[in-house]
From TrEMBL:
Ranges in coiled-coil conformation: none
InterPro entries named in the record: Aldolase_I_AS, Aldolase_TIM, FBA_I
Protein name according to UniProt: Fructose-bisphosphate aldolase
Segments passing through the bilayer: none
Similarity field: Belongs to the class I fructose-bisphosphate aldolase family.
GO biological process: one example: glycolytic process
GO cellular component terms, semicolon-separated: chloroplast; cytosol
Keywords: Chloroplast, Glycolysis, Lyase, Plastid, Schiff base
Pathway(s) served: Carbohydrate degradation; glycolysis; D-glyceraldehyde 3-phosphate and glycerone phosphate from D-glucose: step 4/4
Domain of life: Eukaryota
Name of the gene encoding the protein in the UniProt record: LOC100786504
GO MF: fructose-bisphosphate aldolase activity
Originating species: Glycine max
Plastid found in the keyword field: yes
């Protein structure tokens, strides 16, 4: 027994020695363990991310909480009921031809488990059009103690078990939104908390087969110039990638959902799409490794046309990543106003969704023109302190 134990200890020591960094001559003798990551989902994660980041396609975000969806419905005079939420999401997810322009759809938990009025699961409706189902997994923003009136995102408790269930239900990617406020500093504490939370979520998601969308939204609130946004964005993404690496997250199996680098919404001077593209791409090139497959921008309250013009400007020359969109309001605004909750308007509303999806598809390819866009599509949708 003693000989067997000694042999086991020798083998263990040899394994540890082989899988550790040896100190350089003259340095401390302390060994540093080499992190080893072995995920049974690694190949699938990479394939899922590549599928979502496919040419001419982007993400439709319909992951608003029930409360926020209720506000959308109230804007057209509908009550916030499950039946009405189902009807609206059915309109979106069953749009014929949507898969030509949309590669992924982020769903709220309620929607992931819902079916159409004909009994077809929403996840199957998406798969039939080669659209990958995704799921919002965070539990929302709460005040961050010790900060300058800032927030942190909750939801890590129980995330592993929830993610495993979402995978069984058909979800293949996840979304976690946290925010950074420039008028509030941002404080070093808030930036670190945002980055660490995103990294832990990303690692847990990958362990359960879900491609994590990494989203530290830098809010448009404020009157700061575009140079200040660039400074903050570079700091935030530096921290995010540091902690992603610390948590052994596979970069080839993630997607990013950044804010565009713009002036604050209340800044006296408006930036052109070319300026926004220049500053945004500068930030990305300085901070994002080319191993990341896709950059799926959020619209953040820009008008439908603004968001599309800015995306188009970023695709006028080749990028090391797929630069695309993950829009909610910038895809849905005209759709909702066309529908008005009336069954006879469903077809027209679906056509308006295709118009917006096609416009952003062209922008992803760098071939969009705003000629012929409606006045409704040009209206800004910024809401100070916006919550999902």
């Amino acid at each position: 027994m003693a000989m067997a134990s000694a042999k086991l200890n020798t083998l263990s020591s040899q394994w540890i020695a082989h899988n550790s960094f040896s100190p350089r001559r003259g340095s401390s003798s302390r060994r540093v363990s080499l992190p080893i990551r072995a995920s049974s989902y690694q190949h699938e994660l990479v394939q899922t991310a590549k599928s979502i980041a496919s040419p001419g396609r982007g993400i439709l975000a319909i992951d608003e909480s029930n409360a926020t969806c209720g506000k959308r419905l109230a804007s057209i005079g509908l009550d916030n009921t499950e039946v009405n939420r189902q009807a609206y999401r059915q309109l979106l997810l069953t749009t014929p031809g949507l898969g030509e322009y949309i590669s992924g759809a982020i769903l709220f938990e309620e929607t992931l488990y819902q079916s159409t009025t004909d009994g077809n699961k929403f996840v199957d409706c998406l798969r039939d059009q080669n659209i990958v189902p995704g799921i919002k997994v965070d539990k929302g923003l709460v005040p961050l103690p010790g900060s300058n009136n800032e927030s942190w995102c909750q939801g890590l408790d129980g995330l592993a078990s929830r993610s495993a269930e979402y995978y069984k239900q058909g979800a293949r990617f996840a979304k976690w939104r946290t925010v950074v406020s420039i008028p509030c500093g941002p404080s070093a504490l808030a930036v670190k908390e945002a980055a660490w939370g995103l990294a832990r979520y990303a690692a847990i998601s990958q362990d359960n087969g879900l491609v994590p969308i990494v989203e530290p939204e830098i809010l448009l609130d404020g009157d700061h110039p575009i140079e200040r946004t660039l400074e903050v964005a570079e700091k935030v993404w530096s921290e995010v990638f540091f902690y992603l690496a610390e948590n052994n997250v596979l970069f080839e199996g993630i997607l990013l959902k950044p804010s565009m680098v713009t002036p604050g919404a209340e800044h006296k001077e408006k930036a052109s799409p070319e300026t926004i593209a220049k500053y945004t791409l500068t930030m990305l090139r300085r901070r994002v490794p080319p191993a990341v497959p896709g950059i799926m921008f959020l619209s953040g309250g820009q008008s439908e046309v603004e968001a599309t013009l800015n995306l188009n400007a970023m695709n006028q020359s080749p990028n090391p990543w797929h630069v695309s969109f993950s829009y909610a309001r910038a895809l849905q605004n005209t759709v909702l106003k066309t529908w008005q909750g009336h069954p006879e308007n469903v077809e027209a509303a679906q056509k308006s969704l295709l118009v917006r999806a096609k416009a952003n598809s062209l922008a992803q390819l760098g071939r969009y023109s705003a000629e012929g866009e409606s006045e409704e599509a040009k209206k800004g949708m910024f809401v100070k302190g916006y919550t999902y």
